[in-house]
Each structure stands twice: as structure tokens, then as C-alpha cells.
Amino acid sequence: MRDAEEFEELRPLLFSIAYRLLGSVSEAEDAVQETWLRYQGTATRPVSVKAYLSAVVTRVSIDVLRSARVRREEYVGPWLPEPLADDPYEDPARSAELADSVSMAALLLLERLSPLERAVFVLRDVFAFGFPEIAAAVGRSEAACRQLAVRARRHMDEGRPRFEADRREREELAARFFDAVRDGDVDQLRELLAADVQMVGDGGGKAPALAKGVVGADNVARLTAGFFPVLTQIGAVLEPRTLNGQPGAVVRDKDGALIGTMTLDVLDGKIQAIRSVVNPDKLAHLGPLSDAWALAHEVRRARRG
């Protein structure tokens, strides 16, 4: 009973480590479950339950990462992480690192690292584990882990986006963006978008993505202004919501079933990137799903009408 209670207390941390390593809610939950099974099978009680469980979930996640590389190379269209509605782990002392590391942009940067670099970076820079604990978790010497940390940090710093620091400003800009999207206001959208804004959609070949890759304020403004008002016509609703610690939204059909999600990268008072996920495999944890293909047919019919 005591073991179960301690495990449940640490579950938020274990999930948060696994999610950052895997970019997948479902795979992170599986990694946590596998960690519990291995913990149950241990003959001796570890000195530090936190260190032991963190090491196990890290090793499980590294194994999953290595096997996932081939699947992601064969993935249909752009690959994006599974949207995260709430990060269960909280640490006021590291709130900035935790929020930044869970953003879509940061998770995509982590994809560029080797599994070991990724694990060391997450454990050290996000969760502030000591190098002795990290070395035990990844099966390398402390010196090797320090080198991995330096390499990973350099790669992350080279590509790391600098998000708007003021959360209220980001949320206000996002609210104006979603209002303009609902209204189909091309001019207002152009004002809110960075000149080189990117819009990426992940359908995984299992749902029609709005945009696999569209660049430029005018192109993105026209695309969103032309599409979302038609969705509204057929009863769909755009609900602003924080996702992956960023301004975002969920889109639902007239029955309340989920169509997809959007997240916004905001910098210098402009939207730099829009990422939408409509692959149903990546949305099931957020609730009942809409029939994306039937919805696309309804949209085409509404446009003709």
C-alpha cells in the first residue's frame, strides 16, 4: 500500500518526464504504467524512490524513442507532438523551465536530439536532477552526461524561440486572432501575423489537415479567413484554451465532438507559428472525436451552397 501511495505521489513527475521525452500523451502514460510494473517487481526497496522511478521511466522512454524513430520517418505529412491540455507536475521554483519545455516549439527542437541527449537535457535543465542521478538513469558516466548536457543545451539554444514573456499580452493577442478567424477578417489577421508566419497541420494521413505547410502572412490570413467561417456555418465552435502552456484553441463540431487543436507561437507582438493537430490518434485523450472526413465533406457542400 505504501509503495502504491508513493508511486501515485510521483506519477505527475514521471508523466511529465516521459511526455517531454516522447511528445506523446498516450506513450507517456504507457511508460508510466510500465514503470509501475517494474517497481512492483523489484525485490529490494530503493534508497530513493523518486530517483529510482525517474530513472526507470527515463530508460523506458529512451527505448520507446529509439523504436519510434522509424515510425516517425514513415509518418504521413508533418509530425507534431500530441497536444497537452494540462501538465500535472508543478514546481514553483522551476515554473518557467517547465512551461517553456512543454511548448510545441520546444518539443520539436527536442526531436532533433539523440535519445540520450534528450534524456539528459530534460532531466538536468528542466527537472534539475543531479548528474549522479542522471548517470544512473541513462547508464553513462557523469563526465559523459555533462558532455551530453552541453551538446544538447547548445542545440536547444541555437533554435529556441523566445516567446513573449507577458502571458496576458500573449492571451490578448490570441483572443484577437481567434475573433478575426471566426469573422473571416483577412485584414485583421494580416496585422496579427508575422510576415514569415508558418502554419503547419498534422493529420497523419488519418484526417484532412487544413495546411501541411503554409508560409507568409497573406497566405495564412486568406486560408484561415476562408475556412473557419464555413466551419461556423455548419455549427462548429472555436474554443480558446491553453495547450502545451501556449495560447491555443480546440475546435468542436455541432455536437461538441473534437475536430482538432491549434497552438500559437507569439513573439514581438506577432504570431510566428500556428500548429494544428487533427490526427485522431493524437486527440483521443482530449475527449470524443468528430468524424473528420464526414466533416470535410460537409464543409465542401457548405462552400458550394
UniProtKB/TrEMBL annotation:
**Key words, A-Z:** Sigma factor, Transcription, Transcription regulation
Q: Does the keyword Nucleotide-binding apply?
A: no
Sorted alphabetically, which Pfam families does this protein's record hold? Sigma70_r2, Sigma70_r4_2
Q: Which domain of life is it from?
A: Bacteria
**Which SUPFAM superfamilies does its entry note?**
NTF2-like, Sigma2 domain of RNA polymerase sigma factors, Sigma3 and sigma4 domains of RNA polymerase sigma factors
GO-annotated biological processes: DNA-templated transcription initiation
Record keyword Transcription present: yes
GO: which molecular function terms? DNA binding; sigma factor activity
Describe the location of the RNA polymerase sigma-70 region domain by residue ranges: 7-69
Q: RNA polymerase sigma factor 70 region 4 type domain: from which residue to which, for each copy?
A: 105-156
Q: Which family does it belong to?
A: Belongs to the sigma-70 factor family. ECF subfamily.
Subunit structure, as described in the record: Interacts transiently with the RNA polymerase catalytic core formed by RpoA, RpoB, RpoC and RpoZ (2 alpha, 1 beta, 1 beta' and 1 omega subunit) to form the RNA polymerase holoenzyme that can initiate transcription.
> Protein name, please?
RNA polymerase subunit sigma-24
Query: Which lineage is the organism of this entry classified under, starting from the top rank?
Result: Bacteria, Bacillati, Actinomycetota, Actinomycetes, Jiangellales
